[in-house]
Amino acid sequence: MAVNFSCTTNFFCGYVVSFLLIVTQLGFCSVYFMFLADNLQQIMEEAHFTSNVCQPRQSLVMTSILDTRFYMLTILPFLILLVLIQNPQVLSIFSTLATITTLSSLALIFEYLIQTPHHSNLPLVANWKTFLLFFGTAIFTFEGVGMVLPLKSQMKSPQQFPAVLYLGMSFVIFLYICLGTLGYMKFGTDTQASITLNLPICWLYQSVKLMYSVGIFFTYALQFHVPAEIIVPYVVSRVSENWALFVDLTVRTALVCLTCFSAVLIPRLDLVISLVGSVSSSALAIIIPPLLEIATFYSENISCATIVKDIMISILGLLGCVLGTYQALYEMTQQTHFYMANSTRVHI
Length: 348
Fold this sequence. Notes:
Radius of gyration: 22 Å
CATH topology: Amino acid/polyamine transporter I
Number of domains: 1
Number of strands: 0
Number of helices: 10
CATH architecture: Up-down Bundle
Structural class: mainly alpha
Largest sheet: none
CATH class: Mainly Alpha
Strand content: under 5%
């Protein structure tokens, strides 16, 4: 009886984790759509007065010619073609190219942020609503959580993975802290959801946006790989071999269209990042792992201190999940009401 209950619990938990992993990774892909569209919009609509002399963005009043949704739909066919490539060697080339372009653009961004002048007398503490959104945004930075086990399984020496993981995460945390702090000191309350949208208008920093966008474009395929490896084999196994390739390509195309539709539906980069982080990333990164540790090692006389620590971490993650999700959804509804009100005034 106990064995059957344990097997049923493990089976159910496996499906829950797989579902959350799919939601998380597809959420990341939707965020990538928004990032690419926002940066492509700036690059295209500012091209006619971009020069070698950098102009601060605050000194110019910009009026969008085309909605960001148009740029999302423009990117869609190219991302569909990208995810149809399933050769691991080709994907590794894309990954290397994404890393090179991202690091190069980050170096130029840091070079600009450390220049003077910086804002002074900035508030050191934000209001509690901002903290709720920050929770989801911070957890979103664990977007690589779905790639941990796949990367470990591909290593020649998997036993060295913990050291690689700790080193990599420490470096990423350091970069995030420095970029966030310097960006806030440089732009203050005008800081955009993506720091690239704050860069001045000149060819140098337009190229930075382009390089970063190229890196994000190819990274899309890596984030998409996880949900595709879960969903596609499940669907293909239920059709005949003659239809396998067609169904494979169709499902991949449908998933990309789903991420694009989600981005078109809520084109607010900051709110979607917070929502994805609060809903699914918090469950995968904070809530579920401590509970799994208790369930796995409880029969091996796990210490009371470890149990208390795991429970406290899970409760913290659950509170952040509930409150962060509420605040993100509330901000989205407020934005919807704002757009509807503006549309009504224009119609009248």
